[in-house]
Amino acid sequence: MAKVLEGKIAVVTGAGRGIGRGEAIALAAAGAKVVVNDLGGTGDGSGSDAAPASQVVKEIKEQGGEAVANFDSVAEPEGAERIIQDAVTNFGRIDILINNAGILRDRMVYNMSNDEWDIVQKVHMYGHFYCLRTACKYMRQQKWGRIVNTSSSAGLGETFGQANYGAAKEGIVGLTRQTAKDMARYGVTCNAIRPSAGTRLTMNPELIENWKRAGRGDLVERLEALNPEDIAPFIVFLCTDAAANINGRTFAVGGGEISLYSEPVKERTLFKQKGRWTLEELLAIAPNTLGKGLENPGLDTK
Ligand SMILES: NC(=O)c1ccc[n+]([C@@H]2O[C@H](COP(=O)([O-])OP(=O)(O)OC[C@H]3O[C@@H](n4cnc5c(N)ncnc54)[C@H](O)[C@@H]3O)[C@@H](O)[C@H]2O)c1
Questions:
Q1: Which of 126, 130, 138, 165 is catalytic?
Q2: Both ends of the chain: CA-CA distance in Å?
Q3: What are the sequence ranges of the domains in the chain?
Q4: Catalytic site residue 165?
Q5: Residue 43 Cα, ligand 1 centroid: separation in angstroms?
Q6: Out of 3.40.50.720, 3.30.420.10, 1.20.810.10, 3.30.70.3400, which CATH number does the structure's domain 9-260 have?
Q7: How far is the CA of 66 from the centre of ligand 1 (A)?
Q8: Per-residue pLDDT for 92 more than 70?
Q9: pLDDT band at 215 (very low <50, low <70, confident <90, very high)
Q10: Using an 8 Å Cβ cutoff, are 40 and 52 in contact?
Q11: Are 100 and 13 in contact (CB under 8 A)?
Q12: Cα of 124 from ligand 1 centre, angstroms
């Protein structure tokens, strides 16, 4: 791989396995020095283990790259600060942040507990924000930076039983757009991906069973065929100067596919010159205008 990131310092969260591992290895192969963060817990976020992050650091070093491990949780503000600080302490700066760490606690929305809701927001939404906020303080001073956040197609309604996860992942898209606005003047870009790959997270037996029971065996087969390492080259590209004009955008990435999402625009408008719409007027007009032809997604056969 071309050393397009020679001299750059990167942090990848949740880089001990899956998509993050591939990203950390690819960034190192492109010349970046990398902080490989991973708490090393189970797929639902319990426990911790230093082995996954240490193993990826070992792999990077064996391939001639430079890396250090960090075992903090992105979900704790102090932990997130230490993750970014590790880049500065070990390598002198922080140029690139790949927010990737993630967990799942799937449950149909009517049965979801407070804990299942909270921990998913903590790891995804708060974890992204905590790491990004600290990184932005440094990037603002040095007037260069690249941030790639990790969303999901879950928030687009592709799956079910993921109200907590879908909410967090769409929150991350909003965070991405707003960070892009705040940081553009400092030479920093912030984009998001919605990846697809067969990993511990997606190939977990309970999840597979649930999806199959709900008639979504096709999702399992699609993800199983997609290698998590396929995501990494596009991440490296977003971190180069060649991508300086790409900011606040969201991409689907998986296998050989990289798609740019359109940004939401108003699709249909009812506009009243004076005053507000009455319910009677809406009942008469909205079904054949705003609501016309809309399909109920929850009743899709797929
Ligand atoms: N695999 C997919 O198809 C897919 C689809 C959409 C989104 N994603 C997102 O991609 C990201 C990577 O997922 P993956 O599929 O590679 O899963 P994975 O389970 O293989 O890897 C996630 C890593 O994050 C680490 N992690 C979890 N909580 C952490 C915390 N609090 N602090 C630090 N590290 C933590 C885990 O230990 C694990 O190594 C996640 O954000 C996930 O939501 C994946």
A1: 165
A2: 40
A3: 9-260
A4: yes
A5: 8
A6: 3.40.50.720
A7: 23
A8: yes
A9: confident
A10: yes
A11: yes
A12: 9
